[in-house]
């Protein structure tokens, strides 16, 4: 079973659509675009910099690493430009009664 972690209310994301979540060994960036939620591993696959500090390209559904400019697909975590070549992990989000939950897949739990 995935572990379900409450990470905030939907209203929080309306004002601030990008949020970094630290939970146990997981460091995740959660992005809300037009009511949809996306969640990726926050650590750039090129080096240890936070994607949550980068620019979000809503139309492309991508987030940019501010350090060297690689963009990552919010849909599948794959880099869309160099220098990063490896994907970052993708997480699922659920929303229930206005609360936003991050799902940690069983294989990635401690
Ligand atoms: S650290 Fe992210 S692209 Fe280099």
Average of pLDDT? 96
Most strands sheet: 6 strands, antiparallel
Q: What's the architecture, going by CATH?
A: 3-layer Sandwich
Distance between the termini: 13 Å
Q: What is the beta-strand fraction? A: 35-45%
Total of domains: 1
The number of helices is 1
Could you describe the 3D structure shown?
With 110 residues, the chain is mainly β. It has a single domain (3-108), classed as Rieske [2Fe-2S] iron-sulphur domain (Rieske Iron-sulfur Protein), CATH 2.102.10.10. Helix content is 5%, strand content 44%. Strand 6 (62-64) and strand 7 form a beta hairpin. It is globular and about 40 Å long. The model has no long low-confidence stretch (mean pLDDT 96). It has one helix at residues 10-15; strands spanning 3-9, 18-23, 26-33, 36-41, 56-57, 62-64, 71-73, 90-96, 99-104. The protein is built from one helix and nine strands, in the order E-H-E-E-E-E-E-E-E-E. A six-stranded antiparallel beta sheet has the order 1-9-8-4-3-2.
Keywords:
mainly beta; about 5% helix; Rieske Iron-sulfur Protein; three-stranded antiparallel beta sheet; binds FE2/S2 (inorganic) cluster; about 110 residues; six-stranded antiparallel beta sheet; 1 helix; about 45% strand; single chain
Layout of helices and strands:
Blueprint: E1 3-9, H1 10-15, E2 18-23, E3 26-33, E4 36-41, E5 56-57, E6 62-64, E7 71-73, E8 90-96, E9 99-104
Antiparallel strand pairs: 1-9, 2-3, 3-4, 4-8, 5-6, 6-7, 8-9
This protein binds FE2/S2 (inorganic) cluster.
